[in-house]
Amino acid sequence: MTEMTQTEKTRKQTKRKTASSPSRSRRSRGHQGLVGIISRHMRLAWWIGGVGVALLYAWLFYAFFVSPTGFRWRALYGDANYPKGYEIHGIDISHYQGEIDWNSLRGATIEGCPLRFIMIKATEGSSRLDENFKENFYQARENGYIRGAYHFWSNMSSARSQAYHFLQKVHLQKGDLPPVLDVEHKPADKSVEEFQQDVLTWLHIVEDKYHVKPILYTYYKFKEQYLSTPVFEDYPYWIAHYYVDKVEYRGPWKFWQHTDVGRLPGIKGYVDFNIYNGSYYDLKKLTIGNQDDSW
Prior knowledge:
- With 295 residues, this protein is α/β, with parallel strands linked by helices.
- It contains seven helices and ten strands.
- Strands 1-3-5-6-7-8-9-10 form an eight-stranded mixed barrel, surrounded by four helices.
- The longest helix has 61 residues, at 6-66.
- The model is unreliable at 65-77 (pLDDT under 50).
């Protein structure tokens, strides 16, 4: 057999390399395909994770900031229409309204009706006194309004200590509205029955002092969920329900806080508007000393 030339040797070596290359090529393509699949899955996982985090953030924001006072966020859409068919109007105030110009407020009207009553924040928890309470409480009476005082419920103090704190700081007189309990939050570590008993403890202690049923303030969904047992129907109900044409609560009620974006001369910023479900005569009959069983 004749000896192969250098060119023929080179060709044979090239053929051998070429014959062995498909398996390496297939392995390379398989590796690249696996990397591509993993990359696509990682991008999908990042997208799913990002959406999940965004949804979790939105839920937490709603649960902790919007839901407890969700109706107040509707103020972003502008002033609400005032409910029709009611003539006895009032407001509720606290230090959030700052220093009130009572001379400018005197004679103010809501929907053409005079301002008849003012609810004033007095105490909170077992130690706090609203910094403007004394001045507001005095001026309300001096300017001819039927006045009331309310206590803001705290889950950080016992019902008994809160009731006695209110009685120590607030001295209602004949012609004032019954004391008010503003309760908007239930402690997470108590059952509904335990929470209801605590609320009743406050109401009973204050009722024993003034011999009138205190007024119970809360928004209607909270009442339906936590304070809907028949015993609470004995107490005049002040409902907070904003930006609706009519009260959706089906039980009896005395007061309706229908907006928190009211405007009046003498008050800087917004103020809560309320109506009384009855006549001016009925409102005066509700006051301390004018009820059949009081004082």
